[in-house]
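Table S7 (text form). Paired inputs.
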Amino acid sequence: MRAVVVGAGIVGASAAFHLARRGVEVDLVDSHAPGRATLAGAGIVCPWLSQSRDPRYETLAFAAVRYYPELVARLTAAGETGVDCAVVGGLVVAPARDQLQAVARRLQGYLDRGVTEVGQVRLLDAGGPKALFPHLDSTLAGLYLSGAIRVSGESLRVAMLNAAVKAGARQRFGTATLERNGSTAGVGVRVAGELLRADVVVVAAGAWSAELCRPLDVHLEVEPQRGQILHLRVEETSTATWPLIVPVLSEYYLLGFDAGRVVMGATRESGSGFDFRITAGGVAEVLQEGLRIAPGLKRATLTEIRVGFRPMTRDGLPLLGRPRSMPGLVIATGLGRYGLTVGPYVGLLAAQLATGETPQLDVACFDPERRVAAC
């Protein structure tokens, strides 16, 4: 069996890895377009604090978290030991402890349902969060959960790509176009003037997927949402063990990596198109919100600003499945702000669909050709 995977972000790399380890002949095509969401993504894997309460998303996300240890073990067995993935815990912070009660009840509900990955949960009085993340405002109260994961999406993506190549996958670079190949079911991929024929094509091109599929009359409701995210450097060296921070009244976050690096983000700029710019307003917005809860970071060095395009759908659910009009395709995109949470698992499901296996999870509700009414 031959497959072409278009897009080498977190989903495409995962699909290529899982296809190659099944013995499929894989070509992985990537354009290196600026704005890859995987590179810009913060690295928070904590779906129990997600703003989405859709049970379809929860089922997918909780399964994805359970798959993480198995995936990292498979990559380690393939000789890829450089994945930066650690359970560091998470903190929801608020000006007063009583503002955290609803979140506490939500987490307890998950634990009562047997979602043990949440870990231990405890409320912290004012000052408690600062003891765990030194730059926070000392007046903030917090809710701590031990199961939150921090991951470098790029380290995971590279490990999956390397493992896929070791298993026989071929990397190709250039802008891909999709072409009908002999019948309404067949699809080929043209890159650098060469037509790659395959039994199945996996479209995992993130926010670029809709444009890629348009020539085949496959219409995907996915569009780019620009995110600007800041990287800071502080003097401490213990930052890799700090918990990730999520304010209860805000969509902004903080998390630490090694070598004194702290990530602060991020904007959510709908209607941005593929405008790959750092804007004064975006940077100011992130700094204002981040420094509001962590005033100790005012003296940190601003070392880098990343821009990424999240592939957003109207209902916040992925596009995953085979289009009825073009069964030679498998669509795997639309992960929005939760790409690093569910992306590796969605890549596995896409590989299972591509090979004709029954996916581990029922993906019917993620029909890539569904239409969602505008809000």
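Next pair, protein 2 of 2.
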Amino acid sequence: MPGRASTPSRPVNLSVNLHPYGEGRLLLSRDVTALEQAEAMRRDFVANVSHEIRTPLTVLAGFVETLQTLSLNDQERERYLALMAEQAERMQTLVSDLLTLSRLEGSPPPGLTDWVSVPTLMRQLEQEGRALSAVFNPSRDRLHQLVFDSLLAGEIAGIPNELLSAMSNLVGNAIRYTPSRGEIHVRAFLLPDGRAEFSVQDTGPGIAPEHLPRLTERFYRVDRSRSRDTGGTGLGLAIVKHVAQRHGAELKIESTPGKGSTFTIIFPANRVRSLRIAACSEPIT
């Protein structure tokens, strides 16, 4: 039954049971809101995974049947095989992201013994970002305007592959959803209070306010058709959220429809070491 303080946005569910107790009755009430929410999340997760895998499997099965039953010329066969490889890669990416989430949830949080160089992370992000932009825009005159400002000459305490995964997910999303020739600005700098901030700002289509609270949910998509066109699995921001939480960091999302979005990870001061403001070089474009 719904609790007295239950609202549509904040449901409260109670389980009430009456049991024999000696010569009388014992009434037990229990708040089962968290249990029911966990069960609903489990059902949604299984349904979403099944849906995401079923689509490429259906496409693969259809092409296999076509190759088995029809007489195709070499050009047609190559085209079908390329489409099959694309769907297989999509499933591999999905499974890889699921395994990453499982590992993040099941492993202890990182300590303060391993330190990751911020300039090294930024160089890796720049290489990956420019390569991904070239994939989405084969014509050089349509490439994104990428700017990487690394104003930190220091280190962050954490696990290198997790930090790189979270940051590259944000850069990758910006590239996927920003139109050709659009601007993407990636920054890393030191805040006055000693915290470190990493941000990715784009000039993409932006996100409506009602979607922002749910963006880090697994498989949540603002536009499903567009996400499939760009190769997204719907798990990238969930991975970013988990990595940020494990490192004691804060994930902030700001967006204005029609103007673009800014995704920011702010690391606590105790995870920042030997940082100084470097001289700002000319923007990389």
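Residues 277-285 have pLDDT under 50 and may be disordered.
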